[in-house]
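User: Some background: our group keeps a shared notebook of sequences we're curious about, and every so often someone picks one and asks for a predicted structure to add to the entry. Today it's my turn. The entry only has the sequence so far, pasted here. Could you supply the structure so I can complete it?
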Amino acid sequence: MVRRFIRFLLCLVGIAVVGGAVFYVITAPNPLRDSHWSGLGEPDVKNGETVFWAGGCVSCHAAPGAQGDAKLVLSGGLALKSPFGTFHIPNVSPDEKAGIGSWTLAQFGNAMKRGVAPNGEHLYPSFPYGSYARMTDKDVNDLFGYLKTLPKSANVAPPHELPFPFNIRLALGGWKFLYFNEQPRVALENPDEKVKRGQYLVEGPGHCGECHTPRDALGGFKPGMWLAGAPNPEGEGRIPDITPGSKTIGSWSEGDIANYLETGFTPDFDSAGGSMTEVQQNIAHLPKSDLEAIASYLKAVPSH
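Assistant: Of course. Here's the predicted structure to add to the notebook entry:
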């Protein structure tokens, strides 16, 4: 009897050890090796500026209410409310202590493409690395080079305000296991180079789906609903469907979409409003060819 009990306990211990090992493998951060980032050469700062505006970095990382050149001081401090708690956007200026001035390219690249902080912890997907994972290494390198040219700020954002269990970063490994990948969001049939460029901008640095795609209870994108519209993550209103069958832009031509992204005016001479106002102002910095590429992609995605 005693031997059976001991064998039973050993069996439980074995199951716990195996389960713990599997849990660790699933939830452990998975950064790219430092060697992955070697050999990229000097960054193309001009291209880095284009990536910067495509990604709309100022919308989250500039100080709340900043205008003009002050937007280029990426001091952080914005409080981003969500169903999971309040995220406080960090300083990503070149400041060596408060910002990312002491980071290496590998550390920056792993934050961008793997959601892993320099200390090895998971980053919360309020930072849209789920989209940035699709960026090329060159664009990451160029963006990092451009960020180094911007003004420094000593501002330190407060810690996130998240209730249990969302304050347990290890659980983010499970979220990544369920939702994180580097594959295209939609499979397009024989896309030309223009559409491919638009897909890259929308699905990668532009991270448009982060607001325009509905999410499930765990914060992952609902399958088959890419860009189908979603509740406003900040709580009021709704982010519109921007697929070809939508009431919002379904009747617009590619030229209409490109013009809207450039000027902020719809074909009916209405203007961008709400959070889209700043998004449009950021995207307007892109060359016209990129705006046209985004329009072509939006006309090529499946309708809902």
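Suggested note for the entry: Residues 12-21 have pLDDT under 50 and may be disordered. The longest strand covers residues 79-82.
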